[in-house]
Write a structure and sequence with these properties.
2 copies of one chain form a homodimer.
Chain A (H helix, E strand, L loop, with lengths): L8 H4 L10 H8 L5 E2 L11 H10 L12 H11 L6 E4 L2 H12 L5 E5 L4 H9 L3 E5 L9 H10 L4 E5 L11 H10 L5 E5 L21 E6 L12 E5 L1 H10 L7 H12 L1 H24 L11 E5 L3 H13 L2 E2 L11 E5 L3 H19 L6
Parallel strand pairs in A: 1-10, 3-4, 3-5, 5-6, 6-7
Antiparallel strand pairs in A: 2-8, 7-8, 9-11
Helix pairs in contact in A: 3-10, 4-10, 5-6, 5-9, 7-8, 12-13
């Protein structure tokens, strides 16, 4: 028998695609082992010293499974959110929670709506579970087209609509008021999956308060960005208790590792570190905007830990990504129009930003010197 | 709208069940914070010092995502297995890989076959994905009924049959020859999912060699048991390359954390540590058998890191688990007949085994003194 014959039809029909090529793979294929990582929106500022110390201590008990309930962490998160622990479910990063959300709300064949070219892992899981993705492009200015997303949800009878706020890769931000208007326009049986991976970088007053009685929204947060724990794999969703119960029925109970739980709990307690990261990130965004302007290039307004720079064409953006990679700098490029002429650069430390500025100038000069490729 | 109305029918219909109550939860509900953990088959001997050092070092880069390809670890595993890396996929422990296997091989409504009362997470995921579980009980002596499993697979047109070898909770072991006979009796489109979580504790010559061209079997291994890294959450499956491709199409690409990858890679290199753990575990099993015999109790033969002791009745087994818990000792009890009159005790360190022996004697005496409850 051929191996493929035993694979379920939904999986057999999927392309062998991945949402991303990882920096490690770029290092292997480019032969560079010391890439400046400005492409995965990781924190250049790392975790707090308290989080690191807690993780070091937790390693002493790494032979023990982590608490599948993440009880202590959920209790701390609940205090921060002003709700009960029954409104919170932890996962191995938001990716894990997006996959669970797809399973909780979509049956095979059901439609989900999102923005073309936004964070690709939602689309990956929609396809992986045999559901149907309906997309709406970004507006020309890189903002989300909320009215069109709501229309698409109604037209496709979508059970789930996904958006990130601040958005990735654009960095754009939807105010609490605009979000409320959007939600009012959604069909009543369509749940909003609101990915707040970058929410710490946005102004507090822009984030809608948590209404724990609202059954129509699931919000996700992560320790991968402002908290500097991407490699630890830990995030959480917060929602109506009945929705959390549905997540709990199907989640991999032991998905979150013991060391990550300890790190996240300590990270939460160190508010100063996050505040400092957020301040430094804002300074870095301003620096990137000024750098782009010095080259006559526009940027998208961003409230996240990255900035999109307009290279004017897909060709120039692609050439710049490749040229930067040859110079040891890893950045990403949005894949779909109208943002495919941009590159997305994560805010690094001051030293890293200076190194990027130099490589970027060289890459632009290289492209300018090769008119045949334009 | 009610929250439940938005949940997909498969999930809404599931009971709010969990495969296990974790020791942390037992600690919270019992008020004891220092349970002797002999119930989750964790390694009392911990990881190797090399693995711990590698994890400590990896924490320095915990702000970076782990390599989603687990490239270095897969390369090392491939060398050990004598195959190419394309035959290996890593996951956040075997639980993660069991969930993926269910998705790879089963469509909703398809049948899967396993043993009633065996490791419950397979059944959990079968139910969670809307597939159908068909079970065969253990034989009275705690062994797997292979002929009946194959018959059930044929009768139910199962696409997947799950067994663990050594088995959990019985500890029984199926020889390579018996496994080959079993496979020959399976329907041709039924894949064998062979969970080798405890394989390091079994004799090498009992483990079938890996035939990388065989499309009908997926085998899983973990760093949670003999390697002492349960809290790190890392395991792998090895199979035909086309089957691994199917796993790669749907897996959470960033499921495995960076620290775990470093720890597993270092753990693999430290063969002495594992050999020592395996020796000490065998000594501990013998000690548990002798302890049981000293109380006139039988045990099941085990080639894993735990021993099942026959308490003679479900009532006595349940009372013993509760009595041990009151004495600060956490063990588990198989849930289904014919093993529900047993308790399952993980091999601890020599000190822990001595502590267990004392608490066990007290628990037996307590039960004997309460004839009304019998």
């Amino acid at each position: 028998m051929k191996a493929n014959a035993s694979v379920a039809p939904v999986v057999a029909a999927l392309p062998a695609s991945r949402p991303f090529i990882a920096p490690e793979e770029l290092e292997r294929t480019s032969g560079r082992t010391d890439l400046l990582r400005l492409g995965a929106n990781e924190s250049a500022f790392g975790p707090s010293s308290g989080a690191l110390a807690a993780m070091r201590a937790a390693l002493e008990r790494v032979a023990w499974y982590g608490d599948p309930e993440s009880f202590d962490l959920r209790a701390a998160l609940a205090r921060a959110l002003g709700c009960g622990s029954e409104h919170i479910v932890c996962g191995a990063g938001i990716d894990d929670l997006l996959a669970l959300a797809v399973r909780v709300f979509l049956s095979p064949g059901d439609a989900a709506v999102t923005t073309l070219g936004c964070y690709p892992t939602f689309a990956y899981h929609v396809a992986g579970y045999g559901a149907r993705l309906v997309t709406v492009p970004y507006a020309a200015d890189g903002t989300l087209q909320l009215r069109e997303l709501a229309r698409a949800a109604a037209a496709s009878r979508a059970r789930l609509v996904y958006l990130a706020n601040p958005d990735n890769p654009s960095g754009s931000f939807v105010s609490a008021g605009a979000l409320a208007t959007f939600r009012a326009a959604l069909p009543p049986d369509c749940t909003l999956l609101l990915d707040e991976a970058y929410a710490e970088f946005a102004p507090d007053e822009g984030i809608p308060p948590f209404d724990s009685r609202d059954p129509g929204i699931v919000r996700t947060r992560t320790f991968s960005k402002a908290y500097g724990l991407a490699g630890a794999r830990i995030g959480y969703a917060y929602a109506h208790a009945e929705i959390v119960t549905a997540f709990n029925k199907i989640r991999n109970q032991y998905a979150v590792n013991r060391v990550a739980q300890a790190g996240a709990l300590a990270a939460l307690a160190d508010r100063n570190h996050v505040a400092q990261v957020v301040r430094e990130t804002a300074a870095g965004r301003a620096e990137y905007r000024a750098l782009a302007a010095s080259h006559g290039l526009a940027t998208l307004p961003s409230l996240a830990n990255f900035v999109c720079v307009d290279l004017g064409s897909r060709e120039r953006a692609e050439a710049t990504v490749e040229s930067l990679l040859r110079r040891g700098v890893f950045v990403r490029k949005p894949g779909a129009p109208p943002l495919d002429g941009y590159i997305r650069v994560t805010v690094g430390t001051a030293d890293e930003r200076a190194r990027f500025a130099g490589a970027f100038s060289e890459a632009l000069a290289e492209f300018a010197a090769k008119p045949a490729q334009r």
